[in-house]
Amino acid sequence: MDAIYDIAKTIANTEYDQLTPKAIEGAKYSILDTLSTTIAGSTAGAGCKELVELVREGGGKPESSILCYGGKVPVWMAAFANGGMSHTLDFDDTDGTTAMHPGVGTVPVGFAMAERIGKVNGKSLITSICLGADVVLRLGNAGKKGQGSFKWLVNQVYAYFGGTATCGKLLKLNEEQLVDAFGIVLMQASGTYEPVVATGGFIRGMWPAFTSKASAISAVMAQKGIGGSKESLEGKAALFQSFLDGKYDRHFLVDELGKKFYISDLGFKAWPCNGIAQPYIEATLDIVKENNVKPHDIDEIIVFVSDFAKLLVEPLEKRLNPKTTMDAKGSLPYIVAVAAIKNDVKIEDFTVNGINNAEVLRLAQKVKPIFDAQLAGGERGWTGISPGRVQIKTRDGKSFTRQVDVALGNSKNPMTKEQHVKKFKDCAVYSAKPLSSDDINSVTQMIDNLEELDDVSEIVKILS
What we know:
The chain is an alpha+beta fold and 464 residues long. It has helices at 3-13, 21-44, 48-58, 75-86, 102-117, 122-142, 154-170, 175-186, 194-197, 207-223, 239-244, 251-254, 278-290, 316-320, 325-329, 332-342, 358-364, 417-428, 437-448, 457-463, and strands at residues 64-65, 72-73, 298-305, 367-371, 388-394, 399-404. Strands 4-3-5-6 form a four-stranded mixed sheet. Strands 1-2 form a two-stranded antiparallel ribbon. α6 (122-142) runs antiparallel to α7 (154-170) and α13 (278-290) packs parallel to α16. The termini are far apart.
């Protein structure tokens, strides 16, 4: 029997009291982190304002709120707008093993669906986010064997299923309805890697818009009694056959379902750019701070990259000269140049003005990538976030090298609660809706005590 039946049974029958403390904590941090990146994306994210305008033009039944901009639209269109804002800064949660982004695939659509339903309490939201993230991360782990070709943007592909799980749990769908919902979303699942390897655009950052919209529609269709295909994961033309040629590890899909929750080990980003770049940022910062290296002292910066990290240095000429904010977030030369010059990497460095900083662009030209297969950390072509090694050579002949295996934010080197709250406050500065200190404190406190909240729409009211 297709593993989707075991997954559907677990989703239908798992309740808050069965979650582990670490899973609950992981879900809370994922919610806070995703709301952080969404509100910042409302103005700092390329194309977000235009996306919201498009959604508003469509109108429709006022069910769910557009975060930061206000107004209500049908649940799937609110999910479309909010999902679109959530990932444009590439600042959202990231699993270090699979490089999946479960938060943006589950949190925006989860809040939108909760508003449609009405009076959804915090325990229900935590449970639905936890289970939705578990689906994303189980798919990510199962599919690692076949993901080395970088043809499919599996973050997007798997998020269709995670978002559907979140919505299905909130709607209290039974096992049969959940199987149908997954079958329906399979018909919409897509996601090519082309926007990642290409330069010049920014649609790559909006993939959660598509997954969130489809997730909401699929769950509601199943609730209405519309049937879907029954073998959405392992059928002859289902998920793993269509996208990975049948190369996957099934045990990740079914082992310890309802007992082991992968969100417990979720990682987060300390800096607002591609997850692959995080250890390179930390390595660069360590070198320049510990050795008092000034920008004018630098003769050359060498970044050692594996197969995965090559995505951020090829084609080199374009990576050295990013033309859009999303290109800058995917350019390792630009990112390490920012870190070396500013002793930090912030949202402002990826704005339209920020990416035209002449000093940063000049230093980026001194960045040289060297391939090192050993950094991949495994025999397969896809091993998640690899270590980052940086060497800085100075004009006086000195050389400094640092390798960071696990960057700040990884589950093995976690951010503190205070750092999570600070990230939310930093992101709130960019919200299209001005947020007062009281607003910010209220939201962070409500999420910190989410299991006690009677209606999660209280959070949405503040943010929209």
